[in-house]
Amino acid sequence: MTDATSNAPRFPILLTAFIAVCVAILCALGTWQVQRLTWKEGLIDRADAAALLAPAPLAEVLTATDPEFRKALVVCRGLPTAAFVELQSIHDGEPGRRLVSACVPEGMTQTFLVDRGFLPDAVTERPRVMASTLPLAMVVELRRTPLPGPMIPAPSQGRFFGRDSAAMAAALGAATPSGFTLYALSSSNPEIPALIATAPPAAFSNNHLGYAMTWFGLALALIGFYVAVLVRRRRKTLS
Hints:
The protein is an alpha/beta fold and 239 residues long. It has four helices and eight strands; from the N terminus they run H-E-H-E-E-E-E-E-E-H-E-H. The chain has helices spanning 13-52, 58-61, 165-171, 208-238, and strands at residues 56-57, 71-77, 85-91, 94-103, 112-120, 135-144, 159-160, 180-184. The relative contact order is 0.19.
């Protein structure tokens, strides 16, 4: 008489261990994306709240817990005729350049890079460059300067392809700049109407919920596969 237990399927230890590790990793990735979703929603809320605040002097804005996206009042001497570098950019789907100059705001010692605005590629006119100490009061928006990517081409003849603040400041003969870039919201050069003084839209892609659902969905699919394998092995043994 054959022992019934000898026909029972062996428990798939290796498969179970592999599935368990994979499910744990997928669930961890899903949980991380949920945490990223919460962080991103908080960042969007802070940006929206900052945009509603009235402009304040730059030195005061910098004392805030998170001054990014705040509007500030700043005085830059000689900015309309200051030296500038050009940053390859796109505005409303149109290719062009953003003009970036260095400024030590009135009453401060820290150097800031000022994004004076966007010029379409079709516009060849540029602000004249000459020494000046005439003060220019303007409204700016603070943005943290992102680190340049490793694949960004090197600058050529004053033209940059990534916002490398240290290299830009060096090209302008300025000191190491602040980690915040000042985006002009009022024109430094009204004589050039094509120069659009504006901060680019905040890049807030928020796909974390979809990513989380994908990771958790893969975990469920893997568990379903594992259960199906066990059921199939059981049925094969009983048949």
